[in-house]
Amino acid sequence: MTVSRFHGSSALAWAVGTGLSLLAATAAAATAAAADFDPRRHDATRALVGELAEKGIERDWLERVMGEAAFQQGVLDAMAGAAERRLRWDEYRRIFLQPERIHRGVTFIEAHRDAFRRAEAEYGVPPEVIAAIIGVETSYGRFTGRHRVLDSLATLAFHHPTRGDFFRGELGAFLEITHEQGVEPGELQGSYAGAMGYPQFIPTSYRAYAVDFDDDGIRDLWTNPVDAIGSVGNYFAEHGWRAGEPLYHEAEGPAPPPADIDFNRAARPPAVPAAALADAGLEVPEGLAEEHRLLPVSLEDGEQNWRYVLGEHNFYVITRYNHSHLYAMAVIELAEAIADARALDAHWLEAVSRVAEEAP
Which domains does the chain have, with CATH numbers? Predict the structure, then answer.
């Protein structure tokens, strides 16, 4: 047992003095955090305020809002540990392919049947794919984030070590959107990366692709699932979705993956010819031309068991939403599970049988 060496009034004086010092330090840290992005003391924030004021946003409004933004170290920490960077496919899949999420996907489509029907007619994207995006992102609007978007974007804009310029643009877009729609920026919550609403659009995507799908005069992705459904469809259409085309082919192949094939490059369009995949030992489906370009994906389960998927153009379009092959596979498998639960023939998902039937 440790016995204090302080006694009587000396101990009290030490404790009070230490406590006051800690309180003072905490208060100072809190004040510094609150003032971290105050344009009166932060040159980079002041420059952004000036740019947005030139676009017609009231300077007083901008200065007040940015004066309320606070640095969040947890945002930077979360950016460094994203699940797509640290999990195997089997671990990642378990997060999203659960019976409850599948069931909620079915009920979400049924609850908004007209919006999904219109989105497919206008944008060519099947309901199950749109629902799977929203299901993976926020479990159909149930979990839209717990970080203040203003804090996240300010932190990333001015403190991210490599992508500050990108997030500065997102912060500017966020301020423009909230000002235009009369929303108080400090009241909105989202992901640690500043993504918002049912579909987790970052602000520049919100500005570019959000649609007023129920014609009420407002593009509201925070609380309006109908606008979210139309906006996801529009996002895919604007990124080149090809209606009725498949997403992928299953393929057999050697273990481990052939070293001369560039797997899992989801950030670029399909680039590997079918002939090169066949030469490397993968069983490419019959009916594909030798020069047909694919996006090869290798998925490992932790026990040296490998699964191969050959992504088509629409697979790549899904990765425009999140540049991860794991993300695309989670969306595809959730969409397939929702379609199965709805007892539908999801011909747009896996292409092996259809290509074989169409082969000359």
Answer: 16-70+145-195 (1.10.8.350), 83-143+225-360 (1.10.530.10)
| 157-201 residue pLDDT tens | 999 999 999 999 999 999 999 999 999 999 999 999 999 999 999
Question: 267-296 burial string, b = 16+ CB within 10 Å, else e?
Answer: eeebebbbebbeebebebbebbeeebbbbb
pLDDT tens-digit series, residues 9-38:
333 333 334 343 433 333 333 344 444 899
How distant is the alpha carbon of residue 311 from its chain centre? 20
Nearest CA to 66 out of 29, 34, 28 is that of 34
> What residues are paired with 295 via a beta bridge?
311
- Tell whether pTM > 0.70: yes
Type of residue numbered 145: G
8: left (phi over 0), alpha (psi -120 to 50) or beta: left
Active site amino acids: 137
Beta carbons of 45 and 35 less than 8 angstroms apart: no
- Whole-angstrom CA distances from 104 to 31, 128, 193, 196 are 43, 12, 25, 20
- Give which of 39, 44, 61, 63 is closest to 180, Cα–Cα: 61
Determine contact, residues 179/56, Cβ cutoff 8 Å: no
